[in-house]
Amino acid sequence: MLEIKRLSLKEAKILLEGAELKAAEMKVPMCTAIADETGNMIAFTRMDDAKITSVDIAINKAFTAAAAKRATKDYNEIAVPGKPTFGIHTTNQSRFTIIGGGIPVFDGSAIVGSVGVSGGTAAEDETVAKAAIDYFNGKNK
Amino acid sequence: MLEIKRLSLKEAKILLEGAELKAAEMKVPMCTAIADETGNMIAFTRMDDAKITSVDIAINKAFTAAAAKRATKDYNEIAVPGKPTFGIHTTNQSRFTIIGGGIPVFDGSAIVGSVGVSGGTAAEDETVAKAAIDYFNGKNK
Amino acid sequence: MLEIKRLSLKEAKILLEGAELKAAEMKVPMCTAIADETGNMIAFTRMDDAKITSVDIAINKAFTAAAAKRATKDYNEIAVPGKPTFGIHTTNQSRFTIIGGGIPVFDGSAIVGSVGVSGGTAAEDETVAKAAIDYFNGKNK
Amino acid sequence: MLEIKRLSLKEAKILLEGAELKAAEMKVPMCTAIADETGNMIAFTRMDDAKITSVDIAINKAFTAAAAKRATKDYNEIAVPGKPTFGIHTTNQSRFTIIGGGIPVFDGSAIVGSVGVSGGTAAEDETVAKAAIDYFNGKNK
């Protein structure tokens, strides 16, 4: 039988808190989704004035980072025309998202969930997702 | 120009907290979504061990209660075969949800958002959604 | 070669005007869609405070009434469990709408388009759709 | 509670009128959709002989410009292969449209809705959307 490690809701809320603190500091209202290790959503917040389109994008960045076990930014680089992964962004009913801002969360070597952020540029989204994970790791020490 | 009132994220989190407290008391792990007055999601939590199918259902109960301006339970009663509203549950790309547990949130006479709960029976979901709104109204006094 | 008669945009706007006048008189804010004889939309209005879910429903009532060449109310009656048409509401990517409020517009014996109304009860929607067509026929005399 | 400003139907019709006047002057039949600040449609017209594919495109340009708070033309430039926003056009169930012709409508610094135009080249669509907003601003002085 497999034994799976998965973020709890309590842990997901710490990740959300980390994302919101960083986004507030950057003055960019963000949507943040936390997914479990299968990509299913555990928790989500949309900050006041964040873009409506970012609801879907944040959820699907989190889905992709966990379910494909890789940061969405990496796919942005390898899924361009001429490379063998081109086209992956239309798979999974177009839920496969190749814009930076989705990052897996690890416990040791195991992926236990993910953070997906949308609302700013891809670089800003990535920064906030990383900050959420740093904040979480700091609290878990 | 129309002037619209909408739940803030801070208010949405109070609603979530009210739902989680009631669900914990009932020992039924729930998914709860809070939507704005147009049905777009503001915040969401899935309690540990809640059903995966409830993620979608909670989100769409919240969508329906806000966007159709009516509790989803009401539609369950009027959308049966032989009644004129039969068939409404497949509209809006099947996001129109007619199972109890989605309730609009009012500010005076204006709908400012909604709560959608899924995880137990329809009656349990409805109880948790109502408890969330009572908790919110208690805090806002 | 077939020769097809189709509502013009100018005629569609008269139908919209008729719907809005009746809805205002009834004090029920409505969404109204006008489709051509193939079910493709020509014009649409959402009155202030009308339900968001009614955007999709009005468009698809108009689609159904024109494309299936029959009032949506008729399908409500024949598409119930136990009757041979049961299930038709999930066809056409669930765009086939079986709630009253979608009515074909005729020019002589030819269907030239349709009106789809959503926002009140099915009976209210039907009343507004009929009023739109009466208004149009009155103007066209 | 947040306080939001939104276009009324009366204002949406002025925007439509502006679009139709410009399109007629250019002799290019257009579809024009007006959305509220969340991207939900308020009003729509398809001019006689406009393309059927433009119905969906105009609606989704309006959705994108409002819900992503940015002109669709901007996304066309930043969403190309090799740039970090590549792939955004398949998000939001492919409603995220990156072809010019969708422009937000502002009231001061607040986005209150949007115009989405389709039927000509992207440049022609953009021209008509801008003309609609200029016409609206002229009437609102």
Plain-language structure description:
The structure is a homotetramer of 141-residue chains. Chain A is of the alpha+beta class and 141 residues long. Chain A has helices at 9-26, 53-67, 72-78, 91-94, 122-140, and strands spanning 31-36, 41-46, 102-107, 110-118. A four-stranded antiparallel sheet of chain A has the order 2-1-4-3. In chain A, a hairpin with a 2-residue loop joins strand 3 (102-107) and strand 4. In chain A, helix 1 crosses helix 5. The longest helix of chain A is centred in the C-terminal third of the chain and has 19 residues, at 122-140. The model of chain A has no long low-confidence stretch (mean pLDDT 97). At the A-B interface, helix 1 and strand 2 of A face helix 1 and strand 3 of B.
What sequence of helices (H) and strands (E) makes up the elements of chain A? HEEHHHEEH
Structural class of chain A: alpha+beta
Q: pLDDT below 50 for ≥5 consecutive residues: which ranges of chain A?
A: none
Number of extended strands of chain A: 4
Q: What would you call the quaternary organization? A: homotetramer
Strand order of the largest sheet of chain A: 2-1-4-3
Helix content of chain A: 40-55%
End-to-end distance of chain A, in Å?
29 Å
How many alpha or pi helices of chain A? Answer: 5
Q: Which chains have the largest interface?
A: A-D, 23 and 21 residues
Draw up the topology in text.
4 copies of one chain form a homotetramer.
Chain A: H1 9-26, E1 31-36, E2 41-46, H2 53-67, H3 72-78, H4 91-94, E3 102-107, E4 110-118, H5 122-140
Antiparallel strand pairs in A: 1-2, 1-4, 3-4
Helix pairs in contact in A: 1-5
